[in-house]
Amino acid sequence: MPTIDNPSPYAHWMLREIYEQPDTMAATLGLYVDADGFRSDTCGPLRSWLQAIGDGVLIAASGSSRHAGMVAQISIEEFTGIAVDVEYASEYCYRTERSPTKQAVLVISQSGETADTLAALRKASSAGHPTLAITNVANSTMAREADTSFPTAAGRERAIPATKSFTAQLLNLHLLTLLAAELRGTIDPASLRQRLSEVASLSGLVARQLEGWESSARQIAHAYASAGNFLFLGRGLHYPIAREGALKLKESAYLHAEGYPSGELKHGPNALVAEGTPLVMVATVDRSDEASVLRYEKVVQLMRDMREQGANILAVANTGDALVAGLADHVLSVEETTEPLLAISEVVPLQMFSYFMAVNHGIDVDCPRNLTKAVLAE
Question: What is the rounded distance in angstroms from the CA atom of residue 360 to the CA atom of residue 362?
């Protein structure tokens, strides 16, 4: 049985924490949603913060948390029309304060103690912005100092690479999006109930795919054992997920990886595409969403172009997508769901891939060199 100091039956904390994600998703959802919809006790403060948005939202975060914020930017704007900006917390700290005081500020941090994100929160508070903190530690400094605290329920994360805390952040942000849409009247009650029902099924959706993802990622990591550079590509919500996949590979396996919007590949980065630089292309689709289908079609066309160019492609694609499978060298398959939830589930096989790439290189994946769990000083 697992103990507080032992990741057993898994070889590393990172793998254990990847497997814990269905439970942490369910626990996080339970904090804010019940059978009747949004809970009034935990969501009341969130509604108050949303009502104070005024001129829009600025999200300040670093690392994986910033990637979660980038997903939220697209989702909130598309669902509600609220203008959202995402900044590196380390840059926002030193920006001359010119923004309207009615702009709300959201900070995101796993630990709630990240130095530059905490500085961003304090800067926003001193300027009179309504503040909200998403952290994984309910009694952290950010949770205490923000006007409103919106904690996840991921539990303690021991491996330095963020896995379960990242998907919990994405889940919180999706709930915030739906709550904002409800308040703004941009989603009708029936659609909201349907969306919340889909969120409730997410933990089961991920749980039943974990073993398959582990098996596929193990084999694919072996096939890419000699690769030293990777380009991760995604469109829309999937671009931040591509960036997160690249970050996981950097910090876990010490490999050079960069994330780009798929449409930017031909604007320079394509010069890097060669035999030793595989492309990791996020090519999932929600076929009930016209915009998602359009993004997918563009990605598929890019895959065709890259195959003609001789690129080696690892695709993250819908289960059973024969078109993508015919264009890719390897595929990590993800069961189809709605576009916002695809962004949450598809990152998990990329976490698995990074884990096995690190293990194959003999790296202590739980404690990568030069990194700490919480950056407490700039």
Answer: 5
Angle of helix 40-51 relative to helix 21-32, nearest 10 degrees? 80
What pLDDT, in 10s, does the model give residues 40-51? 999 999 999 999
Quickly name the fold that domain 13-204 has. Answer: Rossmann fold (3.40.50)
How far is residue 282 from each of residues 139, 217, 293, 360, measured CA to CA in Å?
36, 15, 13, 23
Q: Do domains 13-204 and 209-360 have the same CATH topology?
A: yes
Contact between residue 100 and residue 53 where contact means Cβ atoms under 8 Å apart: no
Q: CB of 227 within 8 A of CB of 242?
A: no
Is 50 exceeded by the pLDDT of residue 151? Answer: yes
**Which of 115, 112, 154 is closest to 131 using CA atoms?**
112
Q: Give the start-to-end residue ranges of the domains of the chain.
A: 13-204, 209-360
> How many alpha carbons fall within 13 Å on the CB side of residue 134?
31
Architecture of domain 209-360: 3-Layer(aba) Sandwich (3.40)
> What is the predicted pLDDT for the residue at 102?
73
CA distances from 183 to 37, 159, 179, 336 (A): 13, 37, 6, 28
Q: What gap in Å lies between CA 241 and CA 299, rounded to an integer? A: 15
Whole-prediction pTM value?
0.94
